[in-house]
Design brief:
- This protein is of the alpha/beta class and 157 residues long.
- It has five helices and six strands; from the N terminus they run E-H-E-H-E-H-E-H-E-H-E.
- It has helices at residues 17-29, 50-64, 82-91, 111-116, 125-132, and strands at 4-11, 32-36, 67-72, 95-100, 119-121, 138-139.
- Strands 2-1-3-4-5-6 form a six-stranded parallel sheet, sandwiched between helices.
- The chain is globular.
């Protein structure tokens, strides 16, 4: 696989901050360098005004990215921001890729991800890279296996 560099925004819950390094490492080992504009503990957001957080912090970071990744763990469903971030990315025409957390078996997905994802892939480097660069669409189970015939933009496996 050729080397690729992408500007990405990784939507996640802060409880999963440490796992973003694992995701970036997996991508790097599979020929992809990511420049990540997400808000995390190394790039904190201490603002309290929700409108400012949306328009002054999150929107510019998402706009900068060419691809929007959602790191999906059992905690993701409970985020107050993930659905808004996905919907905003969709309105901006971003490619939206969901990535199941390493070792995931299943969990509830944010409704916006179910509606707008271009791809939902398991924890497999090649699959994630192919989804990010647009060579893989559709839904995978967390183990990387194919889902039954499910309309992509409606609901997951």
């Amino acid at each position: 696989m050729a080397d690729h560099t992408k500007n990405v925004f990784i939507s996640h819950v802060h409880e999963d901050d440490a796992k973003l390094g694992e995701l970036k490492g997996l991508l790097s080992r599979n020929g992809m360098t990511v420049r990540d504009s997400s808000i995390n503990s190394s790039n904190p957001n201490n603002a309290t005004n929700h409108d400012y957080i949306k328009t002054g912090i999150l929107a510019p970071q998402i706009n900068w990215a060419s691809t929007f990744i959602v790191y999906v763990s059992p905690n993701t469903m409970h985020s107050q921001w993930v659905n808004w971030e996905i919907e905003y990315a969709a309105k901006q025409g971003k490619r939206i890729v969901g990535v199941w957390e390493r070792g995931a078996h299943s969990c509830e997905l944010p409704s916006a991800l179910q509606e707008y994802a271009d791809a939902m892939v398991g924890w497999h480097g090649n699959s994630i890279v192919e989804a990010i660069i647009g060579e893989r669409d559709g839904w995978e189970n967390p183990d990387g296996g194919s889902c039954a015939a499910v309309p992509l933009k409606r609901h997951p496996c």
